[in-house]
Specification:
Shape: globular
Distance between the termini: 107 Å
Number of domains: 3
Strand content: 35-45%
Largest sheet: 11 strands, parallel
Radius of gyration: 30 Å
Helix content: 10-25%
Length: 447
């Protein structure tokens, strides 16, 4: 017994020491204070009903879902994701894509965290009125379309090489149904040939209809320019207004749609006897507006669609390399840029002259997520034979060309373009809202 005891006691002490070390080691992997951190995450991060995505207001912990007219709300099944460990409505555990609930009144979803704390989200479902008939979301092959609700147009730019003869669209509508010709459309199922623009007729519960025209553009191969379509027939094309503080000197045609000629100001327009176009002493070319005589309205509708498609095409181009991404953190000081696709996730400012050096066939595409500002008395300069028709500025925010500054290239702005006093541009100014001039010289690039 003495020999056995002499052996077992050291083993017991050794085992005890190992256990202490193990526990201490486990404690050290927690939050540094010897305790294990338990997650308090409990957010609903996505929520949809019958394919209709809900709008989540995280601070208010509310979710709103707008369903089409005629939707029965007494047994809707939600698809959702959350950061918690469980989701319940009352005492019923919710399974995404399976559990049905009655949304006649707002429904409270409770998310539980791992630390047993909870958060409650109130989900409110609104069914569209009998006269509602909008397409509220539209995509093809995962590419979201750009919906212009006022013009009832949708532009989708699909990747280069996409076959467009049998594309399937995913969409949501507030109407009772949507059709193309006589074919009722089922989101995510029905295919159509988008070789030409496709007209979707949305029918409301009261039988009234509205037509959305969907245009699909296939992105050009890398290194090629942006196809402007009929938007390239104009040196200035805008949707809401075109103004000038006289006298500007514009070479090329000017057009406004869907706004009327009354929103073209400062030009002292003189209508042609056909009322198809007007003239102005400030314009070497013709001036068109959506309320002029046939065929002008239809021509301008197509031109605006082409402008939107060109913007979407340019926005979809991939940067040439990491070296053409976020150059200068958005401040382009003293630079000479080679051809390529450049991208910024911020605003871009050009505080000094900017040189674009390349040949007559080289292409520059500048993708700007914010605003674009060219400083006063500074210029964008072309060298080596580079041509302004091959330079494209795709800008999500407003574009401002400073006093007496000079711009080169096609500007595709999702908002407004402003040329300050005395600025000049060898450009096409294509704006999805307004163009404002102030004693400027604007010349369309040579073809």
């Amino acid at each position: 017994m003495n020999k056995f005891g002499n052996i077992t006691r050291p083993l017991q002490w050794f085992t005890a020491l190992l256990i202490v070390a193990f526990v201490a080691g486990c404690g050290g992997s927690g939050n540094g204070s010897g305790s294990i951190v338990i997650s308090s995450a409990k957010a609903i991060t996505a929520f949809s009903l019958a394919g209709v995505t809900g709008t989540i207001n995280e601070p208010a912990k509310t979710i709103s879902v707008d369903m089409p007219y005629g939707t029965a709300v007494t047994a809707l099944v939600a698809t959702s994701t959350n950061t918690g460990t469980g989701l319940t409505v009352g005492s019923v555990v919710q399974t995404s894509g399976t559990t049905a609930n009655d949304f006649t009144a707002p429904v409270a979803y409770q998310v539980s965290a791992a630390d047993n704390s909870t958060a409650t989200y109130i989900v409110t479902v609104t069914v569209a009125s009998i006269s509602a008939k909008a397409l509220t979301a539209y995509s093809i092959a995962g590419v979201a379309g750009m919906i212009d609700e006022a013009a009832k147009t949708i532009a989708v730019a699909v990747p280069n090489g996409t076959a467009v003869t049998a594309l399937v669209a995913t969409f949501t509508t507030t109407g009772a149904n949507a059709s193309v010709g006589a074919a009722v459309q089922t989101s995510g199922t029905t295919s159509n040939d988008f070789t030409s623009p496709v007209a979707y007729t949305v029918t409301a519960g009261d039988g009234s209809t509205v037509i959305y025209t969907v245009t699909v553009t296939v992105a050009a191969a890398a290194g090629s320019g942006v196809n402007l379509g009929t938007a390239g027939n104009y040196v200035i094309l805008a949707s809401s207004a075109i103004s000038t503080v006289p006298a500007s000197a514009i070479t090329g045609n000017v057009a406004l749609s869907p706004a009327s000629a009354s929103f073209i100001t400062g030009f002292t327009l003189v209508a042609d006897s056909t009322n198809v176009f007007s003239t102005s002493t400030q314009v070497v070319g013709q001036v068109f507006a959506a309320d002029y005589a046939t065929p002008t309205p239809a021509n301008l509708t197509t031109a605006v669609l082409d402008m939107q498609a060109a913007y979407t095409d340019a926005a979809g181009r991939a940067p040439t390399s990491a070296a053409t991404t976020n150059v200068g953190a958005g401040i382009l000081t003293g630079l000479t840029l080679a051809p390529g696709v450049y991208e910024w996730g911020t605003a871009v400012t050009i505080p000094t002259d900017l040189v674009l050096n390349g040949t007559a066939t080289d292409v520059w595409i500048f993708k700007v997520a914010g605003t674009l500002d060219l400083a006063s008395a500074k210029s964008v300069l072309l060298s080596g034979g580079a041509l302004p028709k091959n330079v494209f500025w795709q800008v999500a925010g407003a574009v401002t060309i400073g006093t007496t500054a000079h711009m080169e290239g096609v500007i595709l702005s999702q908002t407004a373009i402003t040329l300050q006093t005395g600025a000049s541009a060898n450009s096409r100014l294509l704006a999805q809202t307004a163009v404002a001039l102030d004693g400027n010289a604007v010349t369309q690039p040579a073809p």
